[in-house]
Amino acid sequence: METVKIIIGFSRLKDDDLDTKTEVIINGMTGNVNFPTPVPPLAEVSAKNTAYVAALAGAKKGGKEETALKNQTRKALEASLRLLGLYVEANCQNNEAIALSSGFDIQKAATPVGVLPKPEDFTVENGPAAGTLEVGAKKIKGAKSYVFECAPAPVTDATVWTAKFNTAKSLLFEGLTPGKQYAFRMAGIGSDTMLVYSDIILRYVQ
Q1: What is the CATH number of the domain that holds 179?
Q2: CA distance 29 to 161
């Protein structure tokens, strides 16, 4: 069973939206039997939000000092909300409905990606110098890295592939013999150990 995790980062919220979200949280937790002793107290969070709203209004009309005050009060408010979020997380009984009743948002549970699909638009192109070829395909969703394999042509049951790894969806093979034909393939690497390779492409090196 996944552990319920409260979202306690608020940097994504615009200035006006932070005030709105704070009010939603205060309203959600006021009188909520699941959270009888909020830490910090809701009155403290409300007071910091009031100070933030006032500073925000001043910043819209003022200059650098007013903006600095707004940033300072926002930082203080976010700090209190983070503590309150941790309190909710510790007291929600690992229940999504109870957690959401607080007004906080929760992190979405990660879903297993499974076996990654076959690479699409796999290509082998001339590299920037003699003896090089650029190999790549479309980015594969869920891939943590990629394996690129090369072998002298023709490909048989006895072919031994040379593998290289990269976190990017393309790789430059260097040190190849000009005029010689090579075979190339690639696959995405994810949480599942099974690899689904691309079609094999044969290419002469310039």
Answers
A1: 2.60.40.10
A2: 60
Q: What is the DSSP string of 5-54?
A: -B----TTS-HHHHHHHHHHHHHHHTT-TT-SS-SS-HHHHHHHHHHHHH
Contacts 24+ apart (CB under 8 A), 163-169: 165/189, 169/136, 169/137, 169/138, 169/139, 169/140, 169/143
Does 91 lie in the same domain as 28? yes
Query: Domain check: are 188 and 137 in the same one?
Result: yes
Residues 28 and 87 in one domain: yes
What is the average per-residue pLDDT within 16-30? 96
Under 8 Å between Cβ of 9 and 81: no
* pLDDT given for residue 62 in this prediction: 82
* Shared-domain flag, residues 91 and 56: yes
Q: How many domains does the chain have?
A: 2
User: Distance of CA 170 to CAs 3, 73, 118, 133, 174, Å?
Assistant: 36, 46, 15, 11, 13
